[in-house]
Amino acid sequence: MATIELIQVEKKFGANYAVKPMDLTIRDGEFLVLLGPSGCGKTTTLRMISGLESVTAGCIKLNGRDVTWIHPSQRDIAFVFQFFALYPHMTVRDNIAFPLQAQQVPRAEVNRRVDEVVKLLQIEHLLNSRPGALSSGDQQRVSLARALVRRPAAFLMDEPLGALDADYRETMRAEIKRLHIDQHATSVYVTHDQIEAMAMGDRIVVMSAAMVQQVGTPAEVYYDPANLFVARFIGSPGMNLIRGQYEQGQFIFPRGDRYTVPANWRPALDKALNGAGEVILGFRPESGKVEVQQTDNLIKAEVYASDMHGGFSMLHLDVGAPNVVHIRANRDTDFLMGERVHFGLDPAMVRFFHPQSELAIRREEN
Amino acid sequence: MTTTFEQTGPRTPVVESIRVDKLSPRSRLAGRARAIIATVLALISLIPVFWIIRTAFIPLNEVTAIPPKIIFTPSLEGLVGLLTDDRILSESALAAKRNDPNLSFVDRVMLNAGREVVGSSPYASQLVNSVVIAGASTILSVFFGLLSAYAFSRFNIPGAGDLLFFILSTRMLPPVVVTIPIFLMYRSLGLHDTHIGLILLYTVFNLSFSVWLLKGFIDEIPREYEEAALVDGYTRLQAFRKIVLPQALTGIAATTVFCLIFAWNEYAFALMLTSQNARTAPPAIPSILGSGGIEWNTIASGVLIFLIPVVIVTFALRKYLLRGVTFGAIRK
Amino acid sequence: MAEIVLQNITKKFSHVVALNDVSLCVRSGEFMVLLGPTGAGKTTTLRVIAGLEKQDEGQILFDGNDVSTHTPADRDVAFVFQQYSLYPTMSVYDNLAFPLRSPLRKMAEADIKARVQQVAELLRITHLLERKTARLSGGEMQRVSIGRAIVRRPRAFLMDEPLSNLDAKLREALRIELKHIQKTQSSTTLFVTHDQIEALTMADRIGVLFEGKLIQVGTPTDIYDRPTTTFVAQLVGTPRINLHKASRDNGTLHIMNSEVSLPMPPDTTAHLPPTFTLGIRPEDVKITPTGALAGQVVLIEPLGVETVVHIRAGHQTLLSVVPGMTTLKLHEEVRFDVERERLHFFNSDGARIL
Amino acid sequence: MAVTAQALSSSAPRRRHMSDASLVRLFIIPTLILLILWNVFPLFYSLYLSFTNYSAIANKAPEWVGFANYTAILSRPSFWNSFITTGVYAILSVSLQTVLGFGLALLLRQKFWGSGIITTMTLVPMMLSPVVVGMFWKLIYNPSYGIFNYLLNPLDPRAATDMLRFPNTAMLAVVIVDVWMWTPFVMLLCLSGLSAIPDYLYEAAAIDRASAWFQFRRITLPQVAPLLMIAILFRTIEALKSFDLMMGLTGGGPGNATETVSIQLYRLAFQGQFATGRASALAYIVLIIVISISNVYIRYLNRLRGE
Hints:
The structure holds four protein chains of four kinds.
Chain B: H1 20-23, H2 25-45, H3 47-56, H4 60-63, H5 77-83, E1 84-88, H6 91-98, H7 105-111, E2 115-120, H8 122-154, H9 160-172, H10 175-189, H11 195-219, H12 223-231, H13 236-265, H14 268-273, H15 281-291, H16 296-316, H17 321-325
Antiparallel strand pairs in B: 1-2
Helix pairs in contact in B: 3-16, 5-16, 8-11, 8-13, 8-15, 9-11, 11-13, 12-13, 15-16
Chain C: E1 4-13, E2 16-26, E3 31-35, H1 42-50, E4 57-62, E5 65-66, H2 72-75, E6 77-80, H3 92-97, H4 109-122, H5 138-150, E7 156-160, H6 168-185, E8 189-193, H7 196-202, E9 205-210, E10 213-218, H8 220-225, H9 230-235, E11 242-249, E12 252-255, E13 261-263, E14 275-280, E15 285-287, E16 293-302, E17 306-313, E18 316-323, E19 333-338, E20 344-346
Parallel strand pairs in C: 3-8, 3-9, 6-7, 7-8
Antiparallel strand pairs in C: 1-2, 1-4, 4-5, 9-10, 11-12, 11-14, 12-13, 14-20, 15-19, 16-17, 16-19, 17-18
Chain D: H1 20-49, H2 68-75, H3 77-108, H4 115-127, H5 130-141, H6 147-152, H7 167-195, H8 199-207, H9 212-241, H10 244-249, H11 261-270, H12 276-306
């Protein structure tokens, strides 16, 4: 298959950066996800790898070969578009066969490979209908088939689930991931949906403002976000972030509550804030737990709202405006609006960030 | 509300992307060649217009130069000749007139063309007729057109499709076919050769166009705005006035201009339904050529005065040209 | 605040039946959500209540009296549209003041100004009052359109998917805020959405609408725990409920062409037909070493807060949910079990077997 | 006119304002009345006249002559002659416009500096009044002083030929002017067709190594074809009705070399013995032809709008 390297690749439109200089290596057979809000440069990066977009500077290597300025058709890559890009006036079979015909592959071989990929994606029943008549899910399957049939070195996918109706998205997500497991083809997948990124990515490149914020496995990106942007972007709702004071091992909430920082964090915080100073405490909704009886190290809050999410409930607690934190609770917890409660934090999942640099404070041992 | 940290990043969203196949040196060269050919073709297609402008301002004696002169000292002889009645003067009368102290600018212009101004020419009044008739008929056709366009756009009227088809097909009729019966009707009603007669006819002629074009514009205004106004306590008519009209202004302006152009350019009806009193410019222009022999600069100025407003307005309308010439059917 | 009652409402557009004998009661001060896929007739219901559409059959009662003959203006309900909710030609202030300036209300300009200020503070949009609506962000636009609904203290709020055009983070924030405002104002609200999370999290009661028919009305817990049809079951809950053809032979349930067979406690399956559809929520499929059932992991989807594990048993694949990150590996053999008392049974046409 | 408004049509308890249904009636009826009075009624009146020998200037009442007018016209060679002239003119000008227009559209498709101005400049001719255009092209075609001959053979201006004096060159002259005026119309429609093609189709083709010919034949052409059809149909109808340009440029001459059906109709009805009855008959023949073609055009237009 293929390893793809981006060396100091950047893209500028006039004065402003669409993609700031970045280095990225996509390993052979890896499923790498480019994740970020719209306008963060993820699609431009993908299009530069495909050659549909020119590079302002830097170089792109495919299996060690410099392809920076080579025409997309010579890069042996397949591109799956968000809006399917199927030729509207050709039947499904012609659409799938087309890339092979363009490479003058003999007719018998074309038919064999088309049938093989059509069986793989179970779209035998669609072969002679027009793309326009298909459901969005089927259209995307045909688009995948057209990409697969060429057995390219790498697959580039630009938000393929973006245009699908809600109930196709879950099934197609699993199907694409399963296809990747079968073919173990190097894939670069662009999306703005962080759930898709977590579910599919071997590794995730979180981007924002034309810059790479963090590259890591779903676990790293979820549990150890590199900065506030990643902390807030990953997870729905994102990580709770509260700005407060830190002194002698205690975090002081804006309203004065004191929370004793877990022992293993103390050295890192003392060093980072040299003793004391402003810091941002971060914790995931599932790491908070509403306690019934008053034990030590709990935080006071009033119930701002609580809502049911099917398998669990989500409590929105006011810990002193402007902060409302979200705590996950089991199904049948029911609190009245404005009721006073107190909650504790799972020490293993507590995180801290520098208020100015917005970077995460790292503990030494891991 | 959780504190949200403002996201840094490029303020202007990056939208424009240049496809690599458009960037390769070969295609850039092809692009430039295309641009040059297009520009040359455009200039060639406008040579006739440039030539008319030149002929309108060339003095009479240089009109018949062979080869046709390009560089000359422009003069208003053509223009003044067009708007005035004048007589050729003999050499002696010409000399005597020259040193008459209180010569007006107009007299002096005609003098060096060897002519004396006698009175104003009919063309001026025909231009006025054109303006009055085109203007009045446009106001009426846009007014009625707007009301009907709104009704067709917002309500599903039984048989609306056929009704709209009927309205459009009246515009497809060859003018000559309709003129014969109207000529007889107007003669018996005393509407022949009257301003009101032609205004009404042009109103109907433009009405089908303005209904279709305005319906296209109103269709683009989301219905939710009016419905929100209804729910907020306004009647349908008030919602139309306060919410739909302000948003349709550009559409109304574009339609008005199109109607003006069509009424201004119309020739067949004017030729057959007017003779003297309500005569507009188009049927009058050929008659100028008939009378004069070689006063080309006069004819060219007549043509020029008539075309200049249309050329200017076309530039103002360029965004809506596609819509205009296809009755609002094609809008992209 | 008004109580809205719909009695056997039917509405047809040319040959399509948009609403088919729908009867619904929205109690005063209640936050009722109409949930259903696109084209289920949700928006038509709102438009019929608001008077923007005329129902073919049935009555609409506001606090008991029939308003079928009233024009939208006289019904005094607020309608928040999905998009185009603000008049583009007006500033934010004029948008908020517009309903109060209606000839129906004859309100003095001073009172209008005071009321608009008050609502602007509530929604924290005072800094936007002079701005043209075209220059607002998506979130600000929806806040102003909610403000325009609140400003006139209407009898009820009708909201047509107001959050669906916003990005995920903004949607979450506005959802919480909207619910908070509704609770503090205790205004009767009928909220329409196709997003099941919005329905579950915001509603006091949910009405599930499908192809113009009201299938089920109940609290979020009713809808989630006791869906009356397979459609409702798979409409609510992510990841989606496992639905498999199953058969019963005296006391043990068996998922067809799979190796899953569940011995059930006595006399809990007597009422079941021989073949039926078995529904198991993924969170009720527990992966435990002591599980009675066995299967192979074919796909792992880590979502951070939990992980979806696809377990293949025979030819069927069952989805299960594990909290946090899992240490399971692909193609690993795994044992699992199912919460017996949380199973759902549906007969062949999808209706729930009680 | 039973009008059921889609929106609520019941009147409110307090009738302070109009119901939707009455508003719709108020908004539509004036337009319909105007159209009927000035289009439908005249057509019926002229249908009646076409069966009489009425003449506008002879003050005697119209006498019924049955189909005499129709048979007289259909048997007259000058009718068929003008019909053929119109046909030739339509085919020549429309085909030339289509080829040139589509070519120009392909040229102007890629935006370049000033392409907006250039496009608008080429569109100016179609907005001008045809009779006035005919007039000034008469000056241009003038053998001795006109620029046409000068550009055609700048070396010896003396060798000029008067295009408008000989039958076949006259037709060519008229076609040239019509092409000059209406090629931009075809170009405008093609441009809108080309700009509607989504970029990702070409990108997919680029990735699939499709040849330029494939991209033209399988992506560009199918997208532009419907609009090209609209342009051709519209121009054919206009060509069949053409009257203003001929009157301005050649007055139908020399002889009747460029006498279109409309000009013959005008001459029959408003010159010489004002044969109103017969002219109405000719009018109806033309009407039927034009209506049938424009029917196809409008149906096609609606189908395209519907997409």
